[in-house]
Amino acid sequence: MPKRLNRREFLTTSALGTAAAAVGTSALSFPAIVRAQEPIRIGQLIPFTGFLGAIGEYGKQGATLAVEELNEKGGVLSRKFELITEDEANPGVAVQKARKLIEKDKVVAIEGLVSSASCLAVGDEVQRAKVLLINAGANSDEIRSKRCHRYVFSTEGCNTQYVSAIGNWLIKERKVSRWYFLTSDYAFGHDLLRVARSLLAANKGNEVGSDLAPTGTTDFSQYITKMKAAKPDLIFHNLAGADVTNFLKQYAESGMTIEVAGGVIDSAFAWPVGESLRGHFPIIWWQELNNPASKAWAARYMKRWGRPPDNQAYGDYLAVHAIAQAIDKAKSTDSAKLVSALEGHTLTGAMDGLKGRPLTFRAWDHQLLQPMYVVAAKDKAKWKDKWDIFEIIQEVPPRGSALEDIAIPKAESQCQLEPLA
Amino acid sequence: MTPAVFAEFLLNGLVLGALYVLMALGLSIIFGMIGVINFAHGALFTLGAYVAFQVQGALGFAGALVVAPVLVGLLGMLIEATLLRRLYLQDPLQGLLLTFGLAMVLEQGIRLVWGLSPKTFNVPPAFAGAFTLGALAYSKYRSFILVSVILLIAGLMLFLQKTPIGTIVRAGSRDPMMVRLLGISLTPVLTLVFGLGTALAAIAGVLSAPLAGVQPAMGVNVGTAAFVVVTIGGLGSFWGAIISGLLVGQVVSLSIYFQPRAAEASMYVLMAVILLLRPRGLMGERWEKFD
C-alpha cells in the first residue's frame, strides 16, 4: 500500500518546497556563471594498485588541478567541471569502471589510463558506447594503429615517438650497435620491443640478447648476470612501473658499467632509484623544460600538492584541458561533436601543451603530435634537491623540424577510424 | 656459460633463497607452534621495509636493521595478545580469516600513511658496488645479505636448542598438553613466537629494501613464495624451510637463465611435483595435531 502523507509531513514537505523555491528565485539574481547548473562530469581511470600504482596519485593530482583551474575561471559553457576518479587496476576492472562512469555517473568524457592492456580494452568499450576517451598514459602503438577508434584520442606519446627520440640519439651520439633488450611481458612491453627492434634493424645494429620478465618482478639479478655475460654495448629496457625502479637500482648495485637506456621513463619510478640512477631515456615532459608556461605550471602544482609534478601529472592535466577545449569549441557536450572538434585541433590558450610550439591532434589517427625530450640521469653532485635527477639533452624533433618526423608514418599505420555516427 | 658466470648464477640464487628462507622460517615457526597460517606475512615484510625507511635517516642502516624488526615484532606480539589469542579454540579457518584481513588492513594502512609512490632506499654506502675475486665480480650488498641470513639462522638455532625458552617452544609445538601438565604456561611463549615470526618477516623486508623499491605491494610476491617454500619444506619444519628456501631460490634463478617466461611458474611446478611424491613436504613429519 503506498504510504500517504499525514498532515505534519505534508506541512514540512511543502515548507521545504517553498524554501527551495525561494532559494531558486534568488539564485536568478546571481551572475549567470554561479547559477546552479548540472556540472560537466569527467571520468578518470588511473591505476592506484599493482605495479603501476604509484603514478595514479600523480595523474589524479594533475587532473584535479586542471579541473580547479577551469572552475576558477567559471568553467566552460557556464558549467563547472567535476572529476570522478576510479582505479583502473587491470583490464577487466577498467572496463567495468568505464561502464560505471558512463552509465551511472553520466560522464561527458573519460581520460587517463596507464596500462596499455587496460587502454585497449576501455577503447573498445567507449567506441561501443560512443563516449570520448582521451588516453593520457598508455604507450602501445596498437592503440593508435591497428586498434585505433573514432572515439579515442591520445595525448600520451606512442612507443614509436618515444623510441625514435631516444634510439636515433643513441645510435648517432653514443655509437652503440650491440643491444640487449629486457622487456615487460605484457601488451606495452611487447609493442615497445617490436618498435625498438625495427629501429635497431633499420640502423644495422645487432641484437645480442633479449629477455621477457613478468610484470611485478622484484629480483633482476639473474637477468643482469645474463646481460653481463652477453657483453652488449647497450642495455635497452622496455619495462614499466615499479619494475623500472627495481631494475635500475639493481643494475647500479651490480656494479655493471655497460650503458643503459630505456624506451620510456616515468619520473615517479625514477625518483625512488635515487643517487644510483644512470642512463638515458625519452620523456614527454620534465620540470626543467625551458619554457615559462611550463615552469609556472610546475610551480602551481608544487604549491597545490607539495611536490613537483611527474610526466603522468602532466599527461592527465593536459587531457582534462583538451576535453575542456573541445567542449568550448563544439559549444556542446555531445561526444560525437567533441570528436569532430578535436580532429585536427591545435591546443590553444593557457593550455597549449606547455612546450612552446603548437601541438595538434592528427585527424586520421587521433595522436597528439608533440616533441619528446632525451634526458640523462644527473650526477648527484649537481642536484638542486632530491627531485632534480634528470638533465635535458635534446628536444626531438628539434625546433624547425616537423613533429611528424618521430610519429608513426601514415603509410605504416593500420589505423582505420570507424564512421562517426 | 663461463665458471664465473655460473658462480654468479649460483650466488644470485642463494641470495634469493636466503630471503625466502627468512620469510619461510617465520611462517613455519608460527604455524608449528600456534597452528595458524599467517596470511599477513607479506604485509609485515612490507611494513618492516617502511619502518626501516622511516628510521634510517636518524639511525642509519644498521640501526634500522635492528629497530624495524623489533618494532614490527612488538606489533606482532600485540596482534597475538589482543586478537589472535581469542581464536585458538575456534575453527582454524577463523585465524586464517583474521590474518587475511590483517594483511589488507596493513597494506592499505601503509598506502594511507606513506602514500602510493615508492620510497628511495639507497644501498648503505659501506656495501655499495662489487668486490672482485678472480674473474668473479659480485655485489657487496648481496654478499652482506647472505652472511646476515647465515648468522640469523645460526642464532635462531642456538636460541631454539640451547635456551630454556627455546626448549619450551620446541616442546610446546610437539605436545602442548604435556608442557601445560608440567606447570609451564604457554601463553607468553605463544606471544613471543608470533612476535619472533613477524620480526623475521620484517628483517627480510629491511634487507630487501635497498634492492627492491620500497612500495606498498612489495610483499605480495615474496609472501606468496614463502607459502610455496613452507609447503615444499613441510609445514612447521625448521630445516625443511631452510632446504626448500634454498632449493626454490636456485630453481627460480636457473629457470630465469634457461626460460625466463617460466620463472614464475617454476616454483609452483616444483611444489606440485613434491606434493605428488611426498604429500607432507620434504621434511614434514606426520603429526597427529594436523591429521
Looking at this protein, list some descriptive labels.
heterodimer; A: 421 residues; Rossmann fold; 5-stranded parallel beta sheet; 4-stranded parallel beta sheet; 14 strands; 40% helix; B: 291 residues; mainly alpha; ABC transporter involved in vitamin B12 uptake, BtuC; two-stranded antiparallel sheet; 10 helices
List the helices and strands and how they pair.
The complex is a heterodimer of chains A (421) and B (291).
Chain A: H1 7-27, E1 40-46, H2 54-72, E2 81-87, H3 91-103, E3 109-112, H4 116-129, E4 132-135, E5 152-154, H5 159-174, E6 178-184, H6 187-202, E7 206-213, H7 221-230, E8 234-238, H8 242-253, E9 259-262, H9 267-270, E10 280-283, H10 292-305, H11 311-330, H12 335-342, E11 360-361, E12 368-369, E13 372-377, E14 390-396
Parallel strand pairs in A: 1-2, 1-3, 3-4, 4-5, 6-7, 6-8, 8-9
Antiparallel strand pairs in A: 10-13, 11-12, 13-14
Helix pairs in contact in A: 2-11, 3-4, 5-6, 11-12
Chain B: H1 3-34, H2 41-82, H3 92-114, E1 130-133, E2 136-139, H4 140-162, H5 164-174, H6 176-181, H7 187-208, H8 219-233, H9 238-258, H10 263-277
Antiparallel strand pairs in B: 1-2
Helix pairs in contact in B: 1-4, 1-7, 1-8, 1-9, 2-3, 2-7, 2-8, 4-5, 8-9, 8-10, 9-10
How would you explain this protein's 3D organization?
The complex is a heterodimer of chains A (421) and B (291). By secondary structure, chain A is α/β, with parallel strands linked by helices. Chain A folds into two domains: 40-158 and 290-370, Rossmann fold (3-Layer(aba) Sandwich); 160-288 and 372-404, Rossmann fold. Chain A has helices spanning 7-27, 54-72, 91-103, 116-129, 159-174, 187-202, 221-230, 242-253, 267-270, 292-305, 311-330, 335-342, and strands at residues 40-46, 81-87, 109-112, 132-135, 152-154, 178-184, 206-213, 234-238, 259-262, 280-283, 360-361, 368-369, 372-377, 390-396. In chain A, strands 2-1-3-4-5 form a five-stranded parallel beta sheet, with helices on both faces. In chain A, strands 7-6-8-9 form a four-stranded parallel beta sheet, sandwiched between helices. A three-stranded antiparallel beta sheet of chain A has the order 10-13-14, covered by helices on one side. In chain A, helix 6 (187-202) links the parallel strand 6 and strand 7 (206-213). By secondary structure, chain B is mainly α. Chain B has a single domain (3-290), classed as ABC transporter involved in vitamin B12 uptake, BtuC (Orthogonal Bundle), CATH 1.10.3470. Helix content of chain B is 72%, strand content 3%. Chain B is built from ten helices and two strands. Chain B has helices at residues 3-34, 41-82, 92-114, 140-162, 164-174, 176-181, 187-208, 219-233, 238-258, 263-277; strands spanning 130-133, 136-139. Chain B has a two-stranded antiparallel sheet with strand order 1-2. The termini of chain B are far apart. Residues 287-291 of chain B have low confidence and may be disordered. The A-B interface holds A 48-51, 53-54, 56-58, 185, 211-214, 216, 218-219, 221-223, 225-226, 228-229, 242, 245-246, 249-250, 253-255, 268-269, 271-276, 386 and B 1-2, 5, 8-9, 12-13, 15-16, 115-123, 128-130, 137, 139, 141-142, 208, 210-218, 220-222, 253, 256-257, 260-261, 263-264.
